[in-house]
Amino acid sequence: MSASLSVVEVAQGNLAEGDARVLVNASNTNVQLGSGVSGAIRRACGPGFQERIVTAMRERFGGPMAPGEVLVTDAGTHPTAKWVAHVAVMDYREGMHGGSFPDLARVQSSCAKLWEALELIEDTNLSVAMVALGTGTGGLGLRDSVEVACVTLTEHLRARAHTRLDRVVFYGYSLPEYAATVEVVSRFFALPEGSVPQEVLEFVARGREQERHGK
């Protein structure tokens, strides 16, 4: 018998401003919090957060992480989150170079390790704010990244009899990113009725109709 989630949702906006207990950070092998999602998490988790997660990385890995590894830390002074899962999709061990950027294989292994790492958190009914790993500065397409996350999450749940994961919220920051995330996630999971604006549902339906007709 496979495990199941209570709910999977898609939200628009900044995941650091949501109510999830776990924030997923598309990070790098040095856990340096830069701009975008990482910057939002750094600001939301309060002063000294960067220094604490570097210390946690060194204590666990003895230095930089390998690409695809996951480091779970506290969430500092964040008002609602308790943990941050830092996923090393960018490889900065030798500075910025052509091999720094992830491919889908790295994102796939990263997602698989992420779901397993979250199961080790000593809490139940975990809510998780998920980001599209490897997009933005990582250079991958949002749809591909979200699809990989959905596939690995489905496989993770299928392989387990029980899960600590209760709610996963996929975030899209802009309206186009949100609509694209809705389109992909809804292929794998039933989104709560009324959780997606009607105009977005109609946009997604038109896109699927065009795909069926080869347009």
From TrEMBL:
What InterPro entries does UniProt report for this protein, alphabetically? Macro_dom, Macro_dom-like
Full protein name: Macro domain-containing protein
Return the Gene3D superfamilies for the record.
Leucine Aminopeptidase, subunit E, domain 1
Q: Which residues form the Macro domain?
A: 1-189
